[in-house]
Description:
Layout: H1 6-18, E1 45-56, E2 68-79, E3 82-88, E4 96-101, E5 104-109, E6 114-117, H2 120-128, H3 137-140, E7 151-156, E8 162-167, E9 170-175, H4 186-190, E10 196-200, E11 204-215
Antiparallel strand pairs: 1-2, 1-11, 2-3, 3-4, 4-5, 5-6, 7-8, 8-9, 9-10, 10-11
Amino acid sequence: MHPVDPRRRRLLAAGALALLLPGCSGAPGRRGGPLSSPPGDVLERWRATARLAARTTGGGNRSGSGGGGWSGTLDWRQEHDDFRLRLSGPFGQGALEVAGRPGEVELTTARGERRSARTPEALFLQELGWHLPASSLRHWITARARPGVPVEEWALDEEGRLASLAQQGWLVDYAYRGDSRKDSRTRSRRHGLPDRITLRGEDAVVRIAIRDWHID
């Protein structure tokens, strides 16, 4: 097996860790519809499987590795404050696993290399040299604002679901399947979970297409 070159390892890490953070292009927040504020409740136990495409520009990356793109599959399990995220490349290549609990986050590569930090943000900074609000994605991926953090902008769709969110300097856009009454995945619809998420930041764009949600 050929060793993974540092630039590809950084890009794979960006794909996995970028999932621990959000971003996206949103419309100005509007305070209409059924909610007077964006959803801020917390889903404690869930699992999401998805397709992922990530692109980095390298503009804010102190490693100076430049931009690049990557795509693969995602399996994310969240149970209260503990999570386990597995990211696999095409044909199972370049698998990464990120697991965390309060005060400890660890990244494991397909070669068994391990790196750890106290927070997702610290792991990002350690691996990529980026300052990113990684802890917020647990909430953003479920179409919720992170509790206790100011919301800069937000918008609802016609059915009262979160359409876009700006928080901590990041923008997140959401897309949903059709009318929830006609959708067979009633539990995920009932919780207002998205099917597509576009994340945009100064140095990264991440697109997530959810295959399935499991809500406990």
